[in-house]
Amino acid sequence: MSKKRSNAKVPSPCIDVCKFRRAGHCIGCSMTKAQKSLFKQLKKPEHRSAFVEMLRTQQTSMGKYNHWAPEYARRCLKKGAKPPFEDLAKAG
Q1: What is d(CA 35, CA 59) in angstroms, rounded to the nearest whole number?
Q2: Which of 1-5, 16-20, 59-63 has the lowest mean pLDDT?
Q3: pLDDT tens per residue across span 20-75
Q4: Closest CA relative to residue 14, chosen from 89, 87, 91, 79
Q5: By three-state DSSP, how is residue 21 classified?
Q6: I need a labelling partner for 78 at 20 to 30 A (CA). Which of 7, 8, 58, 86 fits?
Q7: Which residues contact 59 (CB under 8 A, 6 or more apart)?
């Protein structure tokens, strides 16, 4: 069973807010609608992790996304996946 948990795929960075009020970016996760569609097409865990890393950089440059990391860490743990970054694992 622990093997299954370690192989769980990286969940979507979406935290179910989905309100695109910041110049087309979601106020919950900072993704645009195009980025949400792109993430769904990514199948390899390393691609999904890279996407989440890019998204965190985007959030930092945009500001006001401190709420995202702890929510995403909870989402990862709920889905049986390890948060892709060490600081996210501590946030949850």
Answers
A1: 13
A2: 1-5
A3: 999 999 999 999 999 999 999 999 999 999 999 999 999 999 999 999 999 999 99
A4: 79
A5: strand
A6: 58
A7: 29, 30, 65, 68
